[in-house]
Specification:
The complex is a heterodimer of chains A (253) and B (383). Chain A is an alpha/beta fold and 253 residues long. Chain A has seven helices and 14 strands. Classes of the chains: A alpha/beta (253), B alpha+beta (383). At the A-B interface, helix 2 and helix 5 of A face helix 1 of B.
Chain lengths: 253, 383
Amino acid sequence: MNTIACYKVVPDAQDIGVNADGTLNFDKARMILGEYDLMAIEAAVSLAEATDGKAMLLTVGDESLQDSKLIKAALSRGAAELYSVIDPALASADAFQTASVLAAALDKIDCDLVICGEGSADLYAQQVGTLLGALAGLPVVNSVGKLEEQDGTLIVERVLEHEIEVLEASLPAVVSVTTDINLPRIPQMRDILAAGKKPHTIWSLADLGDLPASPVETVSTKAPESVERKHIVFESDAQENIDELVSQIRALG
Amino acid sequence: MDFKKTEEQELLLESLRTAYERGHFEDYFKQCDENHEFPDKAVEVLVEAGFPSLGIPEEYGGTEVDIMTQVMVAEEAHSLGWPSLCWINFSTEVVDILAFGNEAQQKAILECALQGKKPFTLGFTEPQAGSDSAAMATTATKRDGKVYINGTKTFNTSADRAPYMLCMARSGINESPYKDFSMYLFPMDRAGITISKLNKIGNNMCGTYEVYLEDVECEESDLVGVECQGFYQLMKNFEVERLTMCAANVGMARCAYDEALKYAAQREQFGKAIGSFQLIQEKLVDMKIKIENMQNMLYKYAWMKDNGESISVESSLLKRYSGQAAFEVIDDALQIMGGIGYTHDCRIARLWRDQRVYRIMAGTEEIMVHTAGRALVKEAQRA
C-alpha cells in the first residue's frame, strides 16, 4: 500500500530564546524536522516496505522548506519522494489552515494511508491529523501505537488507560501516531547520498486553491513566567497538614 | 577556501550523534575499561547504523565517501567519548588488501570490515625492531611447496580478536631488508601461533599482545602481493592510516576540552565559577588554539590527499603535532578538573591514559622529526 507521512519544519527548541517581555526569540534557532514527525515518517516507510508499496512525504510551510539539507534529512529516512506546498502565507498557518492545505494537496496524490505525528514539535496542538481526516472525508484515528494492514483493511491499536483498543478502519484513512510507535531509523550515508536524487514536487498555494481564513486569533505566544517556588514541605498526610495545604493554596488565589 | 561541511557530511555526523546518544554508552565504556573488555555492544550499534561501510568501494558492499568524510566521522566519534583503538571502520585495511591481495584474501578481509570487526593485527614491530623496522627478523622459509613463518611480533593490537595477521617477514632473497620483506596473511588460529597479553597503562578496552610464530605453516597463496615488495606495499596507504589515527587525537582532545570547559563554567570556588579566573581561562584558550590547529591541519591534509597530492611530509607533521597537542589539551583538562580528574570516575582520566600511546605507536614523534625533517632539508638542497 502507498503511504504518505506529513511533517513540519520547526525551529529547534534548544535554540529558542525568551525576550525580556516573554516573547520568543528565534534568531538563533535553526530549522529542523519536527521530532514527533520522525515517527510518522518511520511508520509510513516501514508499512510501505512491509506491503510492497511506496512511501511518500508531504509538508507545507514557507520558503524554509526549500532548504536542501532539510529535504535530504527528510528523504534519507526511506521515503521515495517528497511533495511540498510552499508559500510565505503558510509560515504562520494554524492547525485548520494547515489541515486544509494538506487535504487539497492529498487530492493530487494517490495514496492509501496518511500518517501524521502526535503533534507538531513547536505548537503541539495535536489537531492537524484529526482535522485533515474530517476535511478529506476519510476515517481518522489518533493516538495510534501500532499499525498494520490486513486484507486491505487497516488495523490500529491505541493504548488507553486500562486496555488496548483495537480498531479496524477502511482505506484510505488518516492516522496520527504516538511517539512510542517506533524508533525512527538512523539514516546511513548511502541513504543520505540517495536522498538528494529523489523526486521533489513543489506546489504553491495557487496550485491548490485559496488558503481559508483562520478561525483562531493568536493574541500572543509567550514563554510562561517563572515563579519562585514556595519551598513549603508537608511531611505527612495528617489532617492538619491537608487543611494547611488547602488553605495555603486558597491563599495564593 | 570553503570551510563548510557538506550537507551530507553534516547529516552523517547527526546520524552518528543520534546513534551514540541512543546507545547511552558512557557507563558501559566505563565498565569495559574497568574490566579490560572490548566494547562489543557499542560496536554493534555503529555497525547497525552502517558506519563500517564508509570508504569501502560500492561494488564490495560499501559506501564510497572521501577521506575527509571518514576523518570527520572518526574525529566526531572520539569527541563524543568513543574509546581509542576501538574504532569500527577498516577501510584502509580493505583498500590495502584490494590493491594487493588475491580474491580469497579480499573476500575474507571485506567480510570482517563490513561487520566492523578488525580484520587483522599487523605483524610489524618486533622486540628488537621498533622504530628500526629494517631490524625485523621474522622469516618466511619455503620448504616442500609450503612457507614456514618463524619469529616474534609485539605490540599487536587486538591479536586476541582479529581473525588474521598481516605479517611482514624476511624472504631471505635480497640483502637489503626493505627489498626482502614479504607480506603474508594467515589466520590467527593456525598451529604454531601463541599470544601473550601485555599489561599496558591504558587502552584497556583493546588488548595488545606479543605474538610468537613457530613454524606457522602457510600456503604460497597466503602471500599478499609480490614477494619482497611487502614493505613498499605497506607504505602505500600509510598516509591515510596516519590521518585516521590523528583524527582520534583531535577527537579525544575535543572530548576532554568540552568536559573541562563545562566544568570550568559551573564549578564554583571562592564564590565564583573557576572559569572566571584567568589562569583557568589561559588553559582553556590554549587548549582551544591547539584543537583549532590540529583540526585545520587534519582537514587540510585530508583535502590534499582527496585531491591526489602526496602528504608524506604533512602526515608526519600532523602525527607529531597532534600527538603532543592532544596530550597537552587532555592534561590541561585533567588539571582543570582538579582531584576529580585523577579519579576513574572522570572520563578525562581514561583519555589521559589512552591518548598517551599516540605519541609512540605507528611512528614515534621522534621518528616523525626524522622523516619530515630529512625530507624538508632534501627538498631545500634540491632547489
